[in-house]
Design goal:
The chain is an all-beta fold and 124 residues long. Helices cover 0% and strands 48% of the residues. The chain is built from no helices and eleven strands.
């Protein structure tokens, strides 16, 4: 069972930047795709970004494309999410998750392990 711990959330003004990090335990981290999702109050959890097992393929939600960058370091068992040009509508709890396969996927049901989440709040 993979355990995931997110960090890096906080309060930032609109237009600012934050970098989230997710540390994973487990021997097979480098074999699976990783993803970031977010959930705002009263809304369903939504896909943000995903990265393939070796970092060669990435996928982004249209709402964050060009502003967010997902990355991974398989030697350190970490996945990051650089968030720039933040907007108030980016406010949410952000979760990292481990996919069931090596390729990128946007579907939450295709992920089997989730972190506890980290709060990102963007003020206007």
């Amino acid at each position: 069972q993979v355990q995931l711990v997110e960090s890096g959330g906080g309060l930032v003004q609109a237009g600012g930047s934050l970098r989230l990090s997710c540390a994973a335990s487990g021997r097979f981290f480098s074999s699976y795709a990783m993803g970031w999702f977010r959930q705002a109050p009263g809304k369903e959890r939504e896909f943000v970004a995903a990265i393939s097992w070796n970092g060669g393929i990435t996928s982004y939600a249209d709402s964050v494309k060009g502003r967010y960058t997902i990355s991974r370091d398989n030697a350190k068992n970490t996945v990051g999410l650089q968030m720039n040009s933040l907007k108030p509508e980016d406010t949410a709890v952000y979760y990292c998750a481990t996919a069931r396969a090596a390729g990128v996927t946007r579907t939450p049901n295709n992920y089997h392990s989730w972190g506890q989440g980290t709060q990102v709040t963007v003020s206007s």
